[in-house]
Q: What sequence folds into this?
C-alpha cells in the first residue's frame, strides 16, 4: 500500500514537472525509477513508455479541445516515429543494462547542463509570424544569441 | 498562417525517425525532442509543436512499449499507478507554471538532471 502511494506520488511529481516545464515527463520518470525506485534501466524505460501512452492521449484530447494541433502532421510524425521507436527499443534490449544506463545518464547529463547554462526557455510565443519566423525565432530563443 | 498544413512530409518523417530512435532507445518517448525540432526545423509555433508532438507520441510510445513488453520489461501495474498520479499532477503543474519563474524552474530541473546523471554514472 505504501509502495502504491509512493508511486502515485511519483506520478503526481512527474505530471507537475511535465506540464510545468514542457519536458517529456519520460526523462525524469526513467531517472527517478532507476535512482529511487530500484528499477533496472530496461524496466524503467519500458514502464515510462507505457505510462506515456495514456498520458499523451489525455494531453492530446485537451489540446484538440482548444483547437490546437494538426492530425495529419501528427500521423506522419507518429508513423515514422513508431517505426524508429521499435528499432530504438530493440537496440536498447540488445544492450546490457549497465551500458544502457550509462548512455541514458550521459544523455540526461548533457540535457541538464544545457538547461542550467541556457535557461532561456522555450519561445512560447516565438514564430508568431509563421514562416518568416523560421530563422528569426532561433535568435529569440537565446540559443542564437549565445554564439 | 497555418504552419502545420505546409509542413513538408520529408521533414516530419526525418524528425519522427530521429525522435523515435532516441525515444525508444532511451525510453523518453521523443516528445521532448520533437518540440524543439518542430520549432526550429519546421517553423511551428511552440504551442502548435507541442500539440502535434502529443499526437505523435501516442503511437510512438505504444510501439516502443509493445517492443519492451514483448521482452517482459514493462511493469504495467506501476505504469497504471503512475498514470493515475500523473492525472492529478498535470493540473498542479499548469497552476505552478502561471506562478513560478520559468528560468529558475529550468535551472532547478537542469540541476536535478545533472545530479541524477552523476549519481547514475558513479553508482
A:
Amino acid at each position: 500500500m505504501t509502495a502504491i502511494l509512493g508511486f502515485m506520488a511519483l506520478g503526481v511529481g512527474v505530471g507537475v514537472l511535465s506540464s510545468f516545464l514542457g519536458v517529456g515527463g519520460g526523462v525524469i520518470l526513467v531517472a527517478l525509477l532507476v535512482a529511487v525506485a530500484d528499477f533496472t534501466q530496461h524496466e524503467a524505460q519500458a514502464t515510462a513508455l507505457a505510462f506515456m501512452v495514456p498520458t499523451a492521449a489525455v494531453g492530446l484530447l485537451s489540446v484538440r479541445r482548444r483547437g490546437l494541433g494538426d492530425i495529419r502532421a501528427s500521423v506522419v510524425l507518429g508513423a515514422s516515429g513508431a517505426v524508429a521507436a521499435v528499432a530504438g527499443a530493440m537496440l536498447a534490449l540488445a544492450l546490457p543494462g549497465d551500458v544502457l544506463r550509462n548512455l541514458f545518464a550521459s544523455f540526461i547529463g548533457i540535457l541538464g547542463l544545457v538547461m542550467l547554462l541556457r535557461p532561456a526557455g522555450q519561445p512560447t510565443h516565438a514564430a508568431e509570424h509563421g514562416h518568416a519566423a523560421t530563422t528569426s525565432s532561433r535568435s529569440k530563443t537565446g540559443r542564437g544569441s549565445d554564439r | 498562417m497555418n504552419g502545420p498544413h505546409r509542413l513538408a512530409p520529408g521533414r516530419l518523417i526525418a524528425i519522427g525517425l530521429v525522435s523515435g530512435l532516441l525515444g525508444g532507445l532511451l525510453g523518453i518517448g521523443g516528445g521532448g525532442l520533437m518540440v524543439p525540432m518542430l520549432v526550429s526545423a519546421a517553423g511551428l509555433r511552440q504551442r502548435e509543436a507541442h500539440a502535434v508532438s502529443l499526437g505523435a507520441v501516442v503511437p510512438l510510445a505504444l510501439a516502443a512499449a509493445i517492443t519492451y513488453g514483448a521482452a517482459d520489461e514493462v511493469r504495467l501495474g506501476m505504469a497504471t499507478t503512475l498514470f493515475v498520479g500523473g492525472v492529478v499532477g498535470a493540473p498542479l503543474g499548469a497552476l505552478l507554471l502561471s506562478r513560478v519563474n520559468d528560468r529558475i524552474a529550468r535551472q532547478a530541473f537542469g540541476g536535478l538532471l545533472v545530479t541524477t546523471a552523476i549519481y547514475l554514472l558513479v553508482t
Remarks:
- Residues 55 and 84 of chain A are 21 Å apart (CA to CA).
- Confidence is low (pLDDT under 50) at residues 123-147 of chain A.
